[in-house]
Design goal:
Elements (H helix, E strand, L loop, with lengths): L1 H6 L2 H14 L3 H14 L3 H25 L16
Helix pairs in contact: 2-3
Length: 84
């Protein structure tokens, strides 16, 4: 678990700590494992801000598509060949 923590692999740390919490006999070990799972979890505020950003992006994209859009493709002027 320490190697995973040092690597920054917090998903593995949470997974291992959850197993330790369920299999530990000592209440202190269970509390420490629960604390480790709580501390390495994702921040609820970060989840909320990510969701709001996604909603804003989708809303602005839909708004642009509905009211401005990419616009019509301009017609190309005819090719005129000048002979002197």
């Amino acid at each position: 678990m320490l190697a995973a923590f040092d690597r920054g692999d917090y998903a593995s740390v949470r997974r291992i700590a959850s197993r330790v919490e369920t299999s530990a006999g000592s209440a202190e070990v269970k509390a420490a494992a629960r604390s480790l799972v709580d501390r390495t979890g994702t921040d609820p505020l970060a989840k909320l801000l990510l969701a709001l950003t996604a909603v804003l992006l989708i809303t602005l994209t839909a708004w642009w598509w509905r009211f401005n859009g990419p616009g019509p493709t301009p017609a190309r002027p005819p090719i005129v060949e000048h002979i002197h």
